Amino acid sequence: MERIRDELGITSVFMRTSTARERAYHKWPTSKTWIADLIKAPIKARMATWVTGSARWIKKFCSKDSN
Questions:
Q1: Phi, psi at residue 32, to the nearest 5°?
Q2: Is the pLDDT of residue 65 over 70?
Q3: How far apart are CA 64 and CA 67, in angstroms?
Q4: Could you tell me the pLDDT band of residue 63, with boundaries at 50, 70 and 90?
Q5: What is the pLDDT of residue 22?
Q6: 38: nearest Cα among 46, 47, 49
Q7: Which end of the chain, C or N, has fewer beta carbons within 10 A?
């Protein structure tokens, strides 16, 4: 399945969602809506929210390019 997706140039759903999540996490804190407040001061919850999950995921898997 992976090979067929590569041949057709189709990105996986996981890659699309993770890219959109990371973009939103970095872009929306400057927004003038309530979503900026949620990102700047995440809700304390037992379960991970998309904000806390995104922050943890970005810290673990993404690194800034030093070049």
A1: -100, 40
A2: no
A3: 9
A4: low
A5: 84
A6: 49
A7: C
Residue type for 63, please?
A: S
Residues in Cβ contact with 8 at an 8 Å cutoff, skipping those fewer than 6 apart: none
CA dihedral 13, 18, 20, 25 (to 10 degrees): 160
User: Is 0.85 topped by the overall pTM?
Assistant: no
pLDDT 10s digits, 6-42: 888 887 888 888 888 888 888 888 889 888 888 888 7
Report H helices in the chain: 2-8, 13-27, 34-40, 50-61
Domain ranges of the chain: 1-62
Q: Which two three-digit tokens encode residue 64?
A: 């800034």
SS3 65: coil
Tokens of 16: 């699309």
